[in-house]
Task: inverse folding
């Protein structure tokens, strides 16, 4: 075989090999099921960072534009594969000292407790209380653990582009007795970050939408540092901005107990 023909044959082989290598992961990703996509998104948990202390500004925005800012300090870690988180409000004075604890359990709902300094007592949040507003925000206590997404039936719809990013679109139907009839999630295909989540009420009407405004990559993992939940029915919205993230490997077990809520 002439040298030129050998060179062309070898070049064509290398080109096809390289194309297959590059296209392989994309093809595999394109074939992911709805359950696989949601599992990747939820396990990654871009709304927080394990083994870390964070400072977050939560701003409540009324329909008329009035704003009320609250500062929170959060501790999070993963213990035996399960999430543990504690939130302490530092300001303003009307909520300072309030603390919230969430402990993920093997099965069923996470265990949640709240300490109210005005009453000087800690109580557990159970049943329909989980559908109530978390500290006046547009998030419910149930939203914080995303349990309804974990236990939902997922269906993959047509992929969509959002602001230039290719996303998987997933329609989730929570189980019986859930607060929402349907949840729609747009998940970035390159890093499984949720860019938008729509929540529908029990009558099937759009209730609220969560928007990811900004994220950063920490140790190869995307972390949402700015987000907004907008309530379509009330015009109220809640903004979250993470101002500080400090990795911590020294968080003691005693920090994640109902008793610890009263001593922050």
Result:
């Amino acid at each position: 075989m002439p040298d030129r023909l050998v060179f062309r044959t070898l070049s064509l082989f290398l080109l096809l090999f390289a194309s297959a290598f590059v296209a392989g992961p994309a093809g595999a990703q394109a074939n992911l099921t709805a359950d696989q996509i949601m599992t990747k998104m939820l396990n990654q948990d871009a709304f927080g960072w394990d083994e870390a202390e964070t400072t977050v500004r939560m701003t409540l925005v009324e329909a008329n534009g009035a704003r009320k800012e609250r500062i929170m300090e959060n501790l999070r870690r993963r213990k035996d594969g399960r999430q543990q988180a504690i939130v302490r409000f530092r300001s303003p004075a009307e909520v300072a000292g309030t603390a919230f604890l969430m402990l993920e359990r093997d099965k069923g709902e996470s265990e949640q407790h709240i300490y109210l300094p005005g009453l000087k007592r800690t109580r557990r949040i159970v049943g329909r209380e989980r559908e109530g507003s978390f500290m006046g925000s547009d998030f419910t206590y149930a939203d914080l653990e995303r349990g309804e997404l974990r236990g939902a039936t997922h269906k993959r719809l047509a992929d969509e582009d959002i602001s230039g990013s290719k996303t998987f679109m997933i329609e989730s139907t929570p189980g019986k007795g859930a607060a929402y009839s349907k949840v729609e999630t747009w998940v970035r295909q390159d890093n499984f970050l949720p860019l938008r989540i729509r929540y529908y009420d029990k009558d099937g009407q759009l209730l609220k939408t969560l928007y990811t405004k900004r994220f950063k990559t920490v140790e190869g993992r995307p972390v949402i540092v700015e987000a907004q939940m907008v309530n379509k029915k009330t015009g109220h919205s809640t903004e979250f901005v993470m101002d500080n993230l400090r990795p911590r490997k020294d968080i003691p077990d005693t920090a994640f107990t109902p008793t610890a809520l009263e001593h922050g």
Remarks:
- The first helix runs from residue 3 to 30.
